[in-house]
Amino acid sequence: MKSLRKLFLLIEVALRNPLEFFDRFEAFLTIRWEKGLVKRASYPIISAAEAIAQIIKLFGDRKLSMLDEVKAIEVEVLERMELLTNAPFTTAHNSDFSLAKLCYLVCRFMQPEIVVETGVAYGVTTTFILKALQLNGKGMLHSVDLPPLGRDTDKFIGFLVPNELKDRWVLHRGASKRVLPKLLPQLKKVDIFIHDSLHTYWNIKRELQLVTPYLSPFAVIIADDIQNNTAFYEWVSKSKPIMWLTFKQEKKIPLQEYLYFAKD
Questions:
Q1: Any idea where the domains of the chain sit in the sequence?
Q2: Which of 103, 196, 207, 215 has minimal CB crowding within 10 Å?
Q3: Which CATH superfamily is domain 43-262 in?
Q4: pLDDT at 264 over 50
């Protein structure tokens, strides 16, 4: 029954938006094709706590107040999660809090003007980023997301984001391969880029290639779930960032990656 329901939903998408149908079908095929053919990557791994400690050490001495801020935001997000009833897609799409905390600290330390993230789901990381921008008193977050296939999923994208934070948020609906080529030239520069969308080799590679020419002189890239292919490693090898590290999420198996990138 579940497979039949998905088939009917895909047919509806095909009739309503053929390009979106193609994007979803391509993603479906790519995921299955890569499982047996794409080489996995191996990285030196540290804990999420060690990664956050390195970020705090690198940027400055405001760690105590910022860590208190992080705890307060986590409580707020957990409270809003309790309101998430009749969720149309699994909460497994949400990022781990360790990733959200790291994004928050980086945003608070760097004081970015432009942040771009791909992948939103219910908006855990999105909320942490927007709270950081609000406290900074500057910056905009541009989020790119193609909602999971299902009834009314669009209405739940960013569900966890409080209304008072939405004035610094622009949500772009669609696959990143279609949105980013149009969005990035409009933004002209990106201070922080966060990949948390489709984690296939081709999508990670494409997103990193697309954003690289628009990175500001001192920028940060954070990527999620890079262990299943070599796209991130290939990009790091070519771009040669001044610092990069990988860490394991607190409650999920996949890795998140964090790096500083300085252009010549």
A1: 1-37, 43-262
A2: 215
A3: Vaccinia Virus protein VP39 (3.40.50.150)
A4: no
